[in-house]
Amino acid sequence: MLEASPLDDGWHLRHEGKPFPAVVPGCVHTDLLAAGVIPDPFVGLGEKEVAWVGRREWTYERELPAGPSGHEQTDLVFDGLDTVAEITLNGQPLGRVRNMHRSYRFDVTGLEGPLAVRFVSAYAEAEAVRGKVGDRPSSYTEPYQYLRKMACSFGWDWGPTLVTAGIWRPVRVERWSTARLARVRPLVTVEEGVGVVELRVEVERTRVEAGLTLEARVAGRSARAEVTGTSGVVRVEVPDAELWWPRGYGGQPLYEAELTLHHGSAPLDVWRRRVGFRSVGLDTSADAHGTGFTLVVNGERLFARGVNWIPDDVFPSRVTRERYRKRLRQAADAGVDLVRVWGGGIYESEDFYDACDELGLLVWQDFPFACAAYPEEQPLRGEVEAEARENVVRLMPHPSLVLWNGNNENLWGFRDWGWEARLGGDSWGEGYYLGVLPRVVAELDPTRPYTAGSPWSGSWGHHPNDPAHGTHHSWDVWNRRDYAEYRSEVPRFVAEFGWQAPPAHATLVRALPGEELAADSPGMLHHQKAEDGNGKLERGLARHFAVPAGDFDRWHYLTQVNQARAVATGIEHWRSHWPVCAGTIVWQLNDCWPVTSWAAIDGDGWEKPLYHELRRLYADRLLTFQVRDGGLVLAAVNQSGEPWVGTVSLRRMSVAGEVLAAASVELAVGARVVDAVRVPADLEPAGAKEFLVADAVGSPGSGEAAGQGGLRAAHFPAPDRDIPYPWPQFEVNVAPGSVTVTARTLVRDLLLQADRLGPGTRADRGLVTLLPGERVTIGVEGWETPDAAAARAALYCQEPAR
């Protein structure tokens, strides 16, 4: 039977001739940090102080011990090496590698002694390849497109430049005889209610003549097949298999699939994975509105409630199984049902996809290409196909994986960013996205759809980022316009859009110790990587608020409110246009370090107000006011599986708290349907002193804020800077585990910044608007010394313009 022994301990990293302990999996930066050689690059300006690390060569060393006798072959297996390295044993080369996204296997039968992995600087390799194949344009100055490495380790508009090297995934020794399972490719389908697992198997042999048998077991069913040469196929049928569904549509049953390779009665190797039975498709058919882009799971057409995912740490080896689960649990709790693994990162670990399988989170997987023209010559072309083949097969068992995507923004870049003229006919990646990758997916994983890129209109017959065709990235709004402009179009699928805000106050205090915080303080500017990021924040803020001068805490609060408002404007508009628009994927869920960015959860794991706003925006049921044909409508979005029948109370109010007019509207909205009703003309607010509020289910009358007892939508027709808000008056009561606020006036955008109350203190909700007499109870965990005065000091809300 194959025996696997981890080889993760006993490693040393050599620095200036001296060895010191190395952690595997890990990277050079984390080992140097643990040894006290470098400062924390996440703190202050530390990133600049460690730039030299990425330009050095580094060597990992340990002894390869002699193994037990009795096996015909011994393999040394690296699940991931970052990135360009030579592996030697006893000073003799075992092999050279040049791809972070692949695993490697070396025959070390009968060998023992000093083992070394010498990493070449990624910069040196990239610059050598660029010299060979010629220069290519990209969105950044770093040469990340010339090697197969996580692009964002070279920096991004939200990430630091920390160019890593190291043994970033596990390493082990495998000992085996006769034969082993070299590749298992599971095709999981549903055929007329019957779950089918077809396992296509390749084996490696030491003895060609040995008779081999495959035995598969799934859900109590079994099947056997013979191996012919080095391949075999075994098929297991599971009658009445329960279907796997995305969260909100059904359960997530998972079945253990086990495949055993036998020689006679002796088991040689075992493969085990969990699978889920479901069908998935992508409807890109043309209609009266253009070309659609709608995911279909088990025959159900979905509006995808998505978030973009970047590596959760710029040092990916630090992301544990528990951390993956926590972050993805946060996504699910926010109503998210789709996570897009963005193309400037990595193919994530099994822990990521396991969590998505269990939580019912659909996964859109980019191949790792982003924002650059990629050469198609060797040595890159062969590496691209090899990594694609390995990772398509590796990830196939996961029912959460529903879409392969060829790249991020490269087709758009070729058309719009001046690449075509600069390239002068040189290769730039089109052959990957429209040739190699769809061919690999069609051959290996025909159960899942493939799209050439994001954004992509489906063909060169339309502009790659045409909102009427396929996927669309909406970045003109953040870069140049007011977020109200989200309402100017109805894309078929919005795969990227977003708005920046700084991280939590606690994150800034930790990451910028001793610094007097200001929007333009040295540390704040260093931890703002977007081009003119602060300028865009300021201009976006000034369109809606009176920008506070010299009051950092107020600026910090308002920029976070503005982020939540911007994203809400887009999602409410686009959801109200289902099924023409079939999904939104917010940029972005998470951060990889402490930074001002588009994330809903910051680099220290604190939830921004945007995170809590997503819980409202992505709930199964949503009320929103929208302007249609010159008038105001109330749209009721019902993404649940049950009809929504009930009464909605409409009130036109003054900001002083007076009810000026009222009416009721009856709702009868079918399952997975959007309905809109016209607001009576006498209820439309006139001027900045009035607003309109709609309450359904448990509001009004309960005294609780909407969202605790029901659903609420509010429409303020004027920017906040023009609204004559009353000075907010409210009472604060504290009890173990909660803070209750009772409003005596209109209190808009009330926010408890729980991170100001103590380390690890968190609130269970974000922004809430209270009408006079309403109250809200905010759950608070981790607050060791509850105090009403401290709670009041941590509460922020809209105030009259000063």
Calculate the mean pLDDT score and round it. Answer: 96
Low-confidence stretches: 699-703
Structural class: alpha+beta
Most strands sheet: 6 strands, antiparallel
Oligomeric status of the shown chains? single chain
Tell me the overall shape: globular
The strand count comes to 44
C-alpha termini separation: 76 Å
Percentage of residues assigned to helices: 10-25%
Q: What is the beta-strand fraction?
A: 25-35%
Helical element count?
Answer: 16
Looking across the biggest beta sheet, what order are the strands in? 3-2-4-9-6-7
Overview of this structure, please?
The strands form twelve sheets. A six-stranded antiparallel sheet has the order 3-2-4-9-6-7, with no helix packed on it. Helix 4 runs parallel beside helix 5 (350-359), helix 6 (380-395) packs parallel to helix 9 (430-444) and helix 14 packs parallel to helix 15. It contains 16 helices and 44 strands. Helix content is 19%, strand content 32%. A hairpin with a 2-residue loop joins strand 2 and strand 3. It starts with a strand and ends in a 6-residue tail after the last strand.
